[in-house]
Amino acid sequence: MAGARSNRGPLLRDVAQRAGVSVGTVSNVLNNPEKVSPETLTRVQAAITELGFVPNAAARQLRAGRSASVGLLVLDVRNPFFTDLAAGVEEAAIDSGLAVILATSSGRPDREAMYLERFEQSRVDGVLVTPVGSSVEPLVALRDRGTPVILLDRLTQTPGFSSIAVDDAEGGRLGGQHLVDIGCRHIAFVGGPRTLEQVRNRAAGARRVAEAAGVDLTEILTTDMSADEGHRVGTEIAALPPDERPDGIFAGNDLIALAVLQALLSAGIRVPEEVAVLGYDDIPFAALATVPLSSIRQPSHLMGQRAMALLTAHLRGDTAHSDHEVFTPELIVRGTTAGHRRDDA
């Protein structure tokens, strides 16, 4: 029994015994110190220090109904876009005295549901989330039970939500127009699944430009937005006869684009002379590729900061309505598109 006792930290009753007070008095010292006399307060605090007592944060959260933390649920924490976004959220959260609990859904609805449930059970003050699919019903239910929810990297017309996003249709238009302007006649848009609103909007923006210019655009779906899928698609494209191969590739994110680029270069295909490659996000690695990657830039860090600012406003009751902030993407031209030329140009 003594061994078992030594394996746990001191309890509330141990502090009470050391200080010569009741357990209720120790509880008041921790939660309502104004109710305790200065002499008793000093004695209990000394006992806490001597024993190395650590208050049970979970129990205090249960009593207070809040945790001084927020949940951040993103699609894929391996993607540097979301890593930078999370850094922006954390920076703003710390300024507000809040901690950030980060989780990744990996694009799976079941994992999204699990983490939303865990966040609610942990009594987080609010949730910032990049939804997996088109339905926001689980988020509506969470919000209606009292947890503020901010949508990240996703626009929605659902009443009661605030959101931070980039105009992905405009990003798709910028990318498609750039590839058309440098002479691409057969563009492949690579990304998926189609359940992701971002992918649909980027592809739609590129398609509108291609159709207006009389340029072929083929959509190559991926099961997710990973480098593995990009390498698979890049290898398949590299194996095509030159006359069937697209001369412009617009990837749904930079991870896919960089993997496609690697597959093409490994197969001896010249980039950008034979095939131009364009990514999306402009992650830090984009500029460091063997052939620096052209990309559509999203202000990920700023998006995270602004999302946290929106959530903080909701928590403080500073806003009674939904706010939707949309950032404009920016085309960043580098080596994977800058030197492309058509043989018949």
TrEMBL record:
Keywords of the record: DNA-binding, Transcription, Transcription regulation
Residue ranges of domain HTH lacI-type in the record: 10-64
InterPro entries on file: HTH_LacI, LacI/GalR-like_sensor, Lambda_DNA-bd_dom_sf, Peripla_BP_I
Pfam families: LacI, Peripla_BP_3
Domain of life, per lineage: Bacteria
GO molecular function: DNA-binding transcription factor activity; transcription cis-regulatory region binding
PANTHER family cross-referenced by the UniProt entry: HTH-TYPE TRANSCRIPTIONAL REGULATOR GALS, LACI-RELATED TRANSCRIPTIONAL REPRESSOR
Name of the protein described by the UniProt record: Substrate-binding domain-containing protein
